[in-house]
Protein 1
Amino acid sequence: MKSIIIFVLALFVTSCAPIYVNYDYEKTADFTQYKTYNYYKDLETGLSELDTKRLLNSLDMSLQAKGFSKSETPDMFINITSSEYIESQRSTVGVGVGGTGGNVGGGISVGIPLGQSNVNRQITIDFIDENGIGLIWQAISETTYNPDASPEKRQEKFKAIVDKVLSQYPPK
């Protein structure tokens, strides 16, 4: 029984890939003046149309929970870009063969990768004040991405990303 609990706990921990986020912001911006937002009309997120809707829905819910409202004449615009990349495999097993004879030496070595490579996704979210300073806040998130995930899992992942990204907005 104890081994089953440990296995389930290990499976749970490894299935929850961490979300890394880097933040940057304009120090001279007065973040208390921003109450309304909207997205650029020509928003090209780099995501599929359905994933874009999932991400925007998560952003809308989180921003409205923080007291923001969507407007046709917003205080700030939001721009989103993303990219995917395959992380190179770090775990390998080395196999080597070597020999010497007299004053001659030689060897062969081969690295065999363990497991499979991870597909990662980087999403950049910019808050832009077009009537003043320009870019006022930026968050860049990185996490693993499963292209075969169900729609429910994708929605959960986008909600987790948005929650982590907006946890540092407004900056203190």
Protein 2
Amino acid sequence: MKNFFDIKDEKMTEKAFSQSLIISFVSILLCLVVLCSTTYAWFTSEKASSSNTLTSGSFDIAVSVKIKDGADLEPLADGSYKLEASKTYIVEINPAAGATVKGYCIVTIDDKPYKTDVILDDEMTDDTYKTATAPLTFTIDSQKADTVLKFESHWGVLLNPDIKEKASITVKDSQIEIKNDLP
């Protein structure tokens, strides 16, 4: 057997060498057991849960534009409405059937966007936004020929809407005037 030396450069006896060898072997064996049990736990672990279904909210609008004391206005092929001069129109915006969240509408009048107040169905009303209810109704007095109206729905809530319930909008040649908080 070869000679082995310990840290102090002294020759180790065969008994001391055997003890060191056994301690090393037991330490390696212990490390292997811990490693194997951790690996086994990692690969056999499972999380059981019931089937979770994630559904997103939906918000769409139904728009009605009609001439005051007259017939409903039919939308054009792209969904926009063309208004005639010297007429007053009543616009009514409702959540479409199946809407599950609150939302608002962007009303584009001659390429200028205006945001409406929150449009809520009675079933969607909560404590924070009880002031807004469906339908959201306002009037447009068109003094300009071929005024184009477009409507785009958006889910969410706005803090400072341009158009509120019972607003009155006047469309002139170069400007649009909105009056809110009318009785």
Protein 3
Amino acid sequence: MSLTVTQAKGYSIVKVEANKLGGVLSPELKDKFVELNQLGVKSMILDLGNAQYCDSSGLSAILVGNRLCKDAGGAFVICEINDMINKLIQISQLDSILTIIPTQQEAMDFLIMDNIEKGLDNE
């Protein structure tokens, strides 16, 4: 499988296991975001530590996840991205829309604090 999902209290971590987030994987990633959202997951971390490349369909999938979480009152965080993907996000001017945090641990800490601030920590 190209994606793994880990459930935590108040959020889910979606890890891309492939080295390319593009045309083949993007629909699977979008479907996973929708599925988690329908299950009541409000906040998600997208771990791109294994992804070396991302194209426009990958960015589209990322934006779907971001929108679903924001609409649910949660947060969407991207972590472990490489310089190439970070540059693509900056060129696309999405760095002001997306929350990017360096490591998965820092992303988990961010979501825990975000959930406490929003009063979601008891859900």
Protein 4
Amino acid sequence: MAGMKRQPLRLLIAALLVAVTFLAVKLWTGKYDGDPNPRARYRIEASSLKRDGTYTWLEIHLRKSGDQDHDMLRPVFLITSDGIEHEPADTTFAGSPGKGFTDIWFKFWLENADLKGKIDLRMNDGTLRVKKNEGAPATDKGGKAVMRSADWGKTWLGF
């Protein structure tokens, strides 16, 4: 009789493990934006935050999505919900100048208030949605978060 009472509990635990595994796989393998602007020439892979007092480092990882390289002569801007354009504080490239850059990381130094609304990245001839929802993003106790989606309500806290 005791074995029969444990059966539903085992099934519940198994179902919860399957659901948690599915959610983790979905977060790490899903696309950041299902329909990135091809004129931007790159798509967002992930973005991360690291808070520092009343400011935050926002880093955006991009991966080449077509045949054209990034136009180094064109400016790149992060546009916050109030319409202010922010230039990158740092840029890192992966790949080679001869074969082209496969990945780019843009790093922006922002006030925490800049993160409360929608955020776009304008590069080349296109615009990519970095953050689509309102509100401040959640971070872990160390002030860090990794986002695998433009919906920053679904963060992966910690690195």
